[in-house]
Each structure stands twice: as C-alpha cells, then as structure tokens.
C-alpha cells in the first residue's frame, strides 16, 4: 500500500523583474513538472496571474482570491494560496489578513477548511518571510514546530536569495534564507526538500544584454511530506 504524501511549493515571483513573461513561463513549467498539492505564490501581479491562469495546471486548483491593495493609484502585488482539487476534495474558504502597517502589501493567507478538515492540529506555514539572520534577535521555533530545511539539510545553508548563485542579481555579496517553511506536524513528517529555479533561461537576456535571466530573484522551495505509519503498523 502506497504511503500518503503531500507536496508543497513556495515561491516569490519578483513583481518588478526583467523579462517577466519569460520568467513566469519558466515558473509555470516548473509548477507543472513538480505538480505540488499545496502552492504558495508571493509577489503575484494581475499580469502574472493572467498568464498563469492560461495554463492547464491552473484549473486543477482551488485558489484564494487576488487581494490587491491600491494606494495612491498604484496597484500592489499580492499573494496566492492554491490547493490541488484532486488532493483536497473541498471548496476552500480562505482567511485573508492584511497587516495594517505593511509597506510592501504583505498579508497572511490560510485555508480555513483545509485547517479544519485535514490538519488535526497540524499546520504548514510557508513563504517569503524576509528573515534576515543578522537583523533578527536570537530565537527558536515554539515547541512542536520544525523547519524542514534544518531537519533534512542541516549542513546546507539553503539560501533562497543568493547573488553568488543567481547571476541575475547585482553583485553585493548578499545571500540569505529569506524564504522558509515552518510546520507543526503530528501525523506527517518531512521527507524531502530542495531549492528550485536554479537554472538560467536559455536564449533569454535582459535588455542590456549583460544579465542572464532566471525565473525569479528568489529560489523556490519544494518540500514533500509523508504520513507517519500508525503504531500498530510499524515494524518491530
């Protein structure tokens, strides 16, 4: 009997980057290839969402609505949460919480029915946390929570914003694990995790013809979770 698994992909799409149509096409192809059950997308714009909505995989997901904050005539980017309909047989309602003091249009998204129906006290939190180690006070996750990257890849720093590896970024030496997955799990455990979007796009250059182009300024994080065996079914 196959052990149940759930996959998750989180990715900041960079709302102001060059060659946007080419980049979003590369993101879309990666999503189609990985076929995640849970998909978190940050810095989505109306234009990028329209491009994504034309793909075949888009129609396979329950989606949060596009919550766009408009200030001084400028339309801000937003965040999307998508749940694969074949995995989660439900019509999701989504909690949308805009942080009142945000200067970057940030807000919290959660699927209420997913939490109520599937989690049983388990939670997956993911996205661009803008977590800058040197600027943050020393802290640890609350009891019962874990960071799958630290569990599965303790020797790898896992930089998701890295001018050493992402040649599209201006060189300033900066690298950080800005993007994170945090989870509180009981019946599930992390099985696999990796960065995606590491390869440059073929035959695509910025207008200055000097920079290579990657899917985003951030690398995405793809993770797989597997259901724990019940105590009665574990081997001695």
TrEMBL record:
Query: Keyword Cytoplasm on this protein?
Result: no
Which prosthetic group or cofactor does it need? Mn(2+); Mg(2+)
Pfam families for the chain = Exo_endo_phos
Q: What compartments host this protein?
A: Nucleus, PML body
What range does the record give for the signal peptide?
A: none
Q: Give every Endonuclease/exonuclease/phosphatase domain span.
A: 9-218
Its main subcellular localisation, reduced to a broad class, is nucleus
Per UniProt, the keywords (alphabetical) are: DNA damage, DNA repair, Hydrolase, Magnesium, Metal-binding, Nuclease, Nucleus
Give the domain of life. Eukaryota
Name the chain's protein: Endonuclease/exonuclease/phosphatase domain-containing protein
